[in-house]
C-alpha cells in the first residue's frame, strides 16, 4: 500500500503541466556579450584513463561576427582542432552555411598516453570560409592547457566548457593616461575591495580646474548595482595625481562571473556643468574584460586576501 502511494505521489495528473519538463538549459550569463566580442564556444572534454582516449565534443558557437554588417548571418563557420605543441594533426568540423550561431554536435578523439596529457594545450581555431584573402578566414582562437584535466572512467560525464574566442590583437596603448588600482577579494566576508591608487599621463581640459575624481561602479549582468566616487585631487603639470582611496563592494562567489567593475577618471567642472570624462576601463570576468584587465581580475579572485595592483590604460 505504501509503495502504491509513493508511485502515485510522483506522477502528474492528466491535463496538468509539469514545469520540470520545460526548464531551459541556459543561464543569463551565457548570453552577455562584452564589447568587441567575436563569439563563444560550447564544448566538452573527457579523458578516459583506461583507454587513453581524449574526447573533444564541439557543441555549438554563439554570436559570431557577420562579415557583412548589413546581413545578419553572413558567416560560413567551421572549427579546426589542434593539440599543441604538435600542430601537424589537424581535425576539423563540418562547415555550416549562413549562420552566426552554428550547432555542430561533433566528437573528435585523440589517443594520448597519460604522462603526455599535462604537456599539451588544446587550440580551437574558428574560421569563416566566406572571407577571402590570406589569413582572412580566421575569426579567432581558444587556447586551453590540458594540465588540469583529470582522467575519468568511460561511464563518467565529460566536463563542459564555455569559452570566448580571442582575437589575435596586441594590448592597446592609450594616450589618455593610466590609472593604478588594486583589488582584494575576501571570500569569507563576500567582499571586494577596490583601491584607486594613482593616475599618470592624464590629459586635462586647460580651461577647467586641474583636478580629477575617480568613479567606481559595480555592475551585475550589465546593470549598475553601486557607485562610489573619490574626493577631488590635484593633478600635476605632468598629468599625475595621487588618490589612495578604497571602496568595498559586496560580492558573493556565485556572482563572480556576472559582476564587473568600471573605473572612470573624471575632470570636475563647476557645479553647473557636467564632469568631463578623461577615460575609463572595465575589470571583470571573461564576459566583460580582456587582456590586462581580465588577468588582473582573475589574479585577485584566484588569490583571496591578497592585494593585487595593476596599471590600466584609459579608453573612451
Automatic annotation (TrEMBL):
Pfam family, one: C2
Protein name: C2 domain-containing protein
Organism of derivation: Pieris macdunnoughi
Gene3D superfamilies referenced in this protein's UniProt entry, alphabetically: C2 domain
GO molecular function, one term: calcium-dependent phospholipid binding
Domain of life: Eukaryota
GO biological process, any: calcium-ion regulated exocytosis
Annotated Gene Ontology cellular component terms: exocytic vesicle; plasma membrane
Record domain C2: where: 37-161, 175-298
Amino acid at each position: 500500500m505504501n509503495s502504491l502511494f509513493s508511485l502515485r505521489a510522483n506522477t502528474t495528473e492528466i491535463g496538468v503541466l509539469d514545469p520540470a519538463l520545460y526548464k531551459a538549459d541556459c543561464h543569463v550569463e551565457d548570453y552577455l556579450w562584452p564589447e568587441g566580442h567575436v563569439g563563444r564556444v560550447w564544448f566538452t572534454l573527457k579523458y578516459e584513463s583506461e583507454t587513453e582516449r581524449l574526447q573533444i565534443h564541439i557543441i555549438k558557437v554563439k554570436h559570431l561576427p557577420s562579415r557583412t554588417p548589413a546581413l545578419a548571418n553572413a558567416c560560413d563557420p567551421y572549427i579546426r582542432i589542434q593539440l599543441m605543441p604538435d600542430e601537424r594533426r589537424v581535425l576539423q568540423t563540418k562547415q555550416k552555411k549562413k549562420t552566426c550561431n552554428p550547432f555542430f554536435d561533433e566528437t573528435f578523439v585523440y589517443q594520448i598516453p597519460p604522462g603526455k596529457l599535462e604537456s599539451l594545450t588544446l587550440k580551437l581555431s574558428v574560421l569563416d570560409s566566406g572571407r577571402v584573402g590570406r589569413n582572412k578566414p580566421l575569426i579567432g582562437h581558444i587556447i586551453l592547457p590540458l594540465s588540469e584535466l583529470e582522467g575519468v572512467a568511460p561511464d563518467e560525464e565529460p566536463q563542459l566548457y564555455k569559452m570566448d574566442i580571442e582575437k589575435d590583437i596586441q594590448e592597446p596603448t592609450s594616450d589618455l593616461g593610466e590609472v593604478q588600482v588594486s583589488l582584494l577579494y575576501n571570500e569569507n566576508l563576500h567582499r571586494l575591495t577596490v583601491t584607486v591608487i594613482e593616475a599618470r599621463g592624464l590629459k586635462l581640459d586647460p580651461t577647467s580646474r586641474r583636478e580629477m575624481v575617480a568613479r567606481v561602479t559595480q555592475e551585475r549582468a550589465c546593470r549598475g548595482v553601486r557607485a562610489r566616487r573619490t574626493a577631488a585631487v590635484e593633478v600635476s603639470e605632468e598629468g599625475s595625481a595621487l588618490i589612495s582611496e578604497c571602496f568595498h563592494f559586496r560580492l558573493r562567489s556565485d556572482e563572480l562571473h556576472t559582476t564587473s567593475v568600471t573605473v572612470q577618471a573624471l575632470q570636475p567642472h563647476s557645479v553647473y556643468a557636467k564632469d568631463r570624462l578623461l577615460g575609463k576601463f572595465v575589470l571583470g570576468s571573461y564576459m566583460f574584460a580582456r587582456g590586462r584587465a581580465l588577468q588582473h581580475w582573475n589574479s585577485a579572485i584566484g588569490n583571496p586576501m591578497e592585494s593585487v595592483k595593476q596599471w590600466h590604460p584609459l579608453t573612451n
